[in-house]
């Protein structure tokens, strides 16, 4: 399962040979570690306007050294480019060209983060063109960066500001090692709904203290498919971030499930999520032990790949039943239950296959695109409440699922990403944890890809 080429090419002699031969040279990614320093080097806040000034002030409060212009030769941890003032495409030249200087100064694992307004909220075609243009420009920058650096964007919707608690939560996520394998992606942020974020979370968003290590303290989370793979890692990361975890999986995986639950100090619940009473059993378990259900992570999923021409009913129906029908049924019951918190979060695992399609996966892609449809429709119903629902779409992640891909195809799939490697389960888990946190209160109905900017996945 391990990426031996990645390890090899990060040793001196093979690195030189790979460079001479023009072979891919993936970098070891900067991932979150306890006590992480968000930005050991200065952070450039480029762009004009009150929003940029206010954001620079907040970063200073986070103990980050802030620059408003590039200083020749000085290394940068990140470049944050605030482009919310753009009203026509010509306005992009100055900030983007300044960003061009900055990217040369980024340290390995550096970050480019655009902050912009939505083209959907533009006042006319010129402003929409400028805003949509930023999308294309930043995605291209993400393709160009090397050394494990990434470029992502935060799109402000409606009256959201650059210093709204959710904007700052997203900024912190993108700056941090938690977003290591999120690249070339945009997340839309609405102004944080009142009552949906605790005073503590709002205060820590502004000061930058306290949230880093235990953002889920006091929350109860249910993770389905937690006995192994990505689900086991999600259970571990949510517990690491302070949540009490209920690990759910089928009875046949009972032993592994118990081991995961024990290792994260959580509880195990053997439930087949396709059972009609699955949600009732989960709610009952949570109510008796913890009182309130704050976070639901729909992670359990299966593949039964076949070309459509050879597809049989059982393969099609089982994938739909596990990957989407169960979620629809359970959500209906969770949402109607008083046990589900008024600030509850639902995070559902989609897949890049559900976005781009994949040969041999028409059933799986139907289920995962279905997840995206479900998330968007449910988000509209949640609108204005303290609840949210979002999807995480992993690309190529190093798991048992992708270990089944033939070796050569697997090598190629890894190198196709902008980061020239597959992601790790922890990359997906960290993104799920972010979307589950108070800091993500204004993010609803989004699909965040964890794919290294690659649409090849599982
Ligand atoms: P995995 O097969 O390793 O683990 C899935 C878990 O779900 C297993 O423990 C399994 O027992 C459980 N499960 C299956 N059916 C269940 C049911 N009816 N009730 C309860 N539990 C059930 O898979 P993974 O690679 O860890 O993937 C996790 C999620 O991420 C899935 O939804 C998958 O579609 C998605 N995903 C994975 C990748 C990847 O590269 N691995 C890429 C895109 C999306």
From TrEMBL:
Residues 219-395 form the Ketoreductase domain. Pfam families: adh_short_C2 (PF13561). GO terms for molecular function: oxidoreductase activity, acting on the CH-OH group of donors, NAD or NADP as acceptor. This is 3-oxoacyl-ACP reductase. PANTHER family: 3-OXOACYL-[ACYL-CARRIER-PROTEIN] REDUCTASE [NADH], SHORT-CHAIN DEHYDROGENASES/REDUCTASES FAMILY MEMBER. It comes from Arthrobacter bussei. It comes from the Bacteria. Belongs to the short-chain dehydrogenases/reductases (SDR) family. The lineage of its organism: Bacteria, Bacillati, Actinomycetota, Actinomycetes, Micrococcales. InterPro entries: KR_dom, NAD(P)-bd_dom_sf, Sc_DH/Rdtase_CS, SDR_fam. SUPFAM superfamilies: NAD(P)-binding Rossmann-fold domains (SSF51735).
């Amino acid at each position: 399962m391990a990426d031996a080429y990645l390890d090899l090419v990060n040793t001196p002699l093979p690195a030189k040979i790979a460079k001479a031969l023009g072979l891919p040279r993936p970098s070891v990614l900067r991932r979150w570690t306890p006590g992480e320093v968000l930005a050991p080097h200065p952070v450039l806040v480029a762009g004009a306007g009150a929003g940029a000034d206010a954001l620079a002030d907040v970063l200073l409060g986070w103990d980050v050294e802030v620059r408003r212009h590039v200083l020749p030769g000085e290394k940068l941890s990140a470049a944050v480019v605030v482009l919310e003032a753009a009203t026509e495409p010509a306005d992009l030249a100055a900030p983007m060209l300044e960003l061009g200087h900055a990217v040369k100064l980024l340290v390995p694992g550096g970050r480019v983060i655009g902050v912009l307004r939505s083209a959907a909220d533009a006042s006319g075609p010129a402003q929409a063109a400028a805003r949509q243009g930023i999308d294309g420009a930043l995605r291209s920058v993400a393709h160009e960066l090397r050394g494990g650096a990434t470029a992502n964007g935060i799109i402000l919707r409606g009256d959201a500001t650059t210093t709204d608690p959710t904007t700052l939560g997203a900024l912190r996520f993108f700056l941090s090692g938690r977003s290591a394998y999120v690249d070339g992606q945009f997340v839309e942020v609405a102004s944080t709904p009142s009552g949906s974020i605790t005073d503590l979370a709002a205060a820590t968003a502004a000061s930058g203290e306290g949230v880093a290590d235990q953002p889920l303290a006091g929350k109860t989370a249910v993770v389905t498919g937690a006995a192994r793979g990505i689900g086991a890692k999600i259970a571990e990361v949510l517990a690491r971030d302070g949540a009490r975890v209920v690990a759910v999986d089928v009875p046949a995986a009972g032993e592994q499930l118990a081991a995961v639950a024990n290792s994260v100090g959580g509880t195990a619940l053997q439930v087949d999520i396709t059972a009609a009473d699955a949600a009732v059993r989960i709610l009952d378990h949570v109510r008796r032990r913890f009182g309130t259900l704050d976070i639901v992570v729909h992670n359990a999923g299966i593949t039964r790949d076949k070309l459509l021409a050879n597809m049989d009913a059982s393969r099609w129906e089982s994938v739909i039943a596990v990957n989407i029908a169960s979620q629809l049924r359970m959500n209906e019951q969770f949402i109607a239950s008083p046990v589900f918190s008024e600030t509850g979060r639902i995070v559902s695992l989609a897949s890049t296959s559900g976005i781009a399609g994949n040969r041999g996966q028409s059933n799986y892609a139907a289920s995962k695109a279905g997840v995206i449809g479900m998330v968007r429709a449910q988000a509209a119903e949640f609108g204005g409440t303290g609840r949210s629902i979002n999807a995480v779409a992993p690309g190529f992640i190093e798991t048992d699922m992708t270990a089944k891909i033939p070796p050569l195809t697997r090598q190629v799939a890894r190198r196709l990403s902008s980061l020239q490697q597959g992601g790790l389960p922890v990359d997906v888990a960290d993104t799920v944890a972010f979307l589950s946190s108070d800091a993500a209160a204004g993010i609803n109905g989004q699909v965040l890809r964890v794919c290294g900017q690659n649409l090849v996945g599982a």
